[in-house]
What we know:
- By secondary structure, this protein is an alpha/beta fold.
- The chain has 12 helices and 12 strands.
- It has helices spanning 5-12, 16-23, 31-44, 50-57, 73-88, 101-110, 128-135, 159-172, 192-206, 223-234, 248-260, 292-308; strands at 62-67, 92-97, 119-122, 141-143, 152-156, 178-182, 216-218, 242-245, 270-275, 286-289, 317-319, 323-325.
- The strands form 2 sheets. The chain has a 6-stranded parallel β-sheet with strand order 2-1-3-4-5-11, with helices on one face.
- Helix 9 links the parallel strand 6 (178-182) and strand 7.
Amino acid sequence: MTASINDVAQAAGVSASTVSRALRGRQGVSDEVRDRIAAVAAQLGYTASRSASSLASGRTCTIGVLVPYVGRWFFGTVLDAAEKVFSAAGYDVLLYNLGSPETRKRFFTRLPVRKRVDAVLSLLIPDDEESAALRSLGVPLATTVGGTRPGFTVVGIDDRAGTESAVRHLVNLGHRRIGMISGSSGPLHWTTPIERRNAYLDVLADAGIEHDAALEADGDYTVDGGERAMTELLAASRPPTAVFAQSDEMAMGALRALRRHRLKVPDDVSVVGFDDHELADVVGLTTVAQPVAEQGAEAARLLLRRLDEPDTEPAGHVRMPIRLVLRETTAPPRPRGPH
């Protein structure tokens, strides 16, 4: 038999009203209790009644989600976490994959989500015209990428602080030839590569290290791209002794390139990533950990809260914690760099 809200309440040791508030992201429920209720609901296979919620509220009980790449790890992880929160609260997800400029332009010209969704979670960064189009929908808006934007609840991290901690770690180890693998060819209007590059340059300047353009390469935020970029850096007249990759996937590609060139990590080259990908610990990657799934879940909860409390102002910019995780891919440089 299908589990009911009362079954979840009994198993979690709370009232049915507390279950309802927790699964809809409403206030008045502690994080500990909310997590316990979500776990019990998932274990029992409970989801709120979509038809009952729709009849009671006049809503579609559907959330629109815009993504630039469904298959990329970061976006897929955010989407999966958000969908679980929406589903537990009785909402369906209407997904739009807007990876190509043509698809994106067609979407914002037609706005097919109008009158079909109760809120929009955007995992792409809209320009001013696109932002205005989304605001014209008159529904709550949230995102997990980019900075503060009028009308949007933004759940994200401090990209500059994360990059600074990674590059300073390499500087403090004694490295002076520090390369960077970026993602400058990422999604349209994506500010993350710019923020992380500026932080990289600032740390080098603060340390009195002259910037060398030959120590930067584009890795396209993919494993294969990271491998190509690392191979390009190794071909420089003076290769780096350490590399900061703007994502763990690019860092993993760099590790593969170094292995193919028979260079040891970290003896010959140190590598730092960014994300704390689920495989980062497997390969011993030093990285900046960000709570990717938690960003998606929190954005979803804040959207549901806005739907239940429409008179409240958007949460603005919610910063999630980050930390540098030291593993086996970084060490002081050897007296002589890689050959």
